[in-house]
Amino acid sequence: MNRRARTALSLACVLLLSACGGTRGAPDAKSPVVLGYSQLGDESSWRTQNSFSIKSAAKRAGIKIMFEDAMQDPANQIKALRSFIAYKVDVIAFSPLVETGWDMVLGEAKAARIPVIIVDRMIDTADESLYAAALCSDFYLEGRKAGEFLLRKFSGRETPVSIVELAGTAFSTPAIGRSEGFREALAGHGKFEIRFSEDGDFMQSKGREIMKKVLDRFEAEDIDVLYSHNDDMTFGAIEVLREAGIAPGRDIVIISVDATQRSVDYLREGTVNCVIECNPNSGPQVMDLARRIVSGEKVPKKTFVRETTFDEFGDLDSIPARGY
Ligand code: AHR
């Protein structure tokens, strides 16, 4: 059975259960907290680890999870959220693909008195009562850190620094924050010029595709920096650079976001110059929030997960193993 058929079947089961009177009482030891989780897709190594963290933390916390993969389609996320509402789960969590378009379905969850936790990416809404809590990365800060690395790296240079940007999914919080933070860190430093920017959807195949296009359009000597919004796109771009006889990390400075093991290895060997961490291991914090919200505790409205930066100026031996 393929993924699409499996998703359809599990949604059908959920709807059937609720149609058969699947109303739940208050969660207790015999009837655990039920969490409906809508994951946006499986586009990157980061996302695979994030899904693993969510599912394994649920298991450890004794929380029953109904997990749906939306395969990069917000319509699938809305469908999943509606199925969780129909099933009367205790709490819903979801990682929104893009920032807008959620008010109506979240209004339905609110009317059904089901609290919602926003995870990883943020939503853009004028009504903060539509969610109970948000646990996200500070994508704007990640973008600033990328810019600040360049200020240091090119501090002695007088001539223009030309930059190519591989951006993440359009209208998603990480793409917005990483672009804005980066530009603001460089604002006022006229020598930096972003000469090309394209949305690569956080996918390795698109990183390859776009880097090829860049090399068709520009001479390699005219590109100083590649700023990539995630590791998978970076890996695709590195393949293309190597095939063209260009040494990544030496001929072109590379900044990547995520900090998977492979990108940290690349940093150690000089293939990448700066790696900004985006932490996918939010599972335990999500489960803690879910439990506290279901038991009526007050929780912070917005929490940022902890993240750091690794670059060629730091102590590369002390970077802990990433585990993914
Ligand atoms: O929302 C987090 C971003 O989404 C990660 O940087 C990226 O790898 C993922 O696809």
Summarize the structure in words:
The structure is a single chain. The protein is α/β, with parallel strands linked by helices and 324 residues long. It has 2 domains: 28-135 and 280-304, Response regulator (Rossmann fold, 3-Layer(aba) Sandwich), CATH 3.40.50; 139-278, Rossmann fold (3-Layer(aba) Sandwich). Helix content is 41%, strand content 19%. The chain is built from 10 helices and 12 strands. A 6-stranded parallel sheet has the order 2-1-3-4-5-11, with helices on both faces. The radius of gyration is 21 Å and the shape is elongated. The protein starts with a helix and ends in a 13-residue tail after the last strand. The relative contact order is 0.14. Residues 1-9 and 11-23 have low confidence and may be disordered. Bound molecules: alpha-L-arabinofuranose. Residues 43-44, 46-47, 120-121, 174, 202, 230, 257-258, 278 line the site of alpha-L-arabinofuranose.
Descriptive tags:
single chain; 324 residues; alpha/beta; Rossmann fold; 2 domains; 6-stranded mixed beta sheet; elongated; disordered N terminus; binds alpha-L-arabinofuranose
Helical percent range? 40-55%
Pattern of helices and strands: HEHEHEHEEHEHEHEHEHEHEE
Low-confidence stretches: 1-9, 11-23
Number of helices: 10
Strand order of the largest sheet: 2-1-3-4-5-11
Number of strands: 12
**Which class best fits the helix and strand makeup?**
alpha/beta
Gross morphology: elongated
Sheet bearing the most strands, described? Answer: 6 strands, parallel
Q: Might you state the CATH topology name of the largest domain?
A: Rossmann fold
The first-to-last residue Cα distance is 28 Å
What is the C-alpha radius of gyration, as a whole number of Å?
Answer: 21 Å
- The oligomerization state is single chain
Strand content: 15-25%
Query: CATH H level of the largest domain: which superfamily?
Result: Response regulator
Bound molecules: alpha-L-arabinofuranose
Structurally, the number of domains stands at 2
Architecture of the largest domain in CATH? 3-Layer(aba) Sandwich
Mean pLDDT: 93
Broad CATH class of the largest domain: Alpha Beta
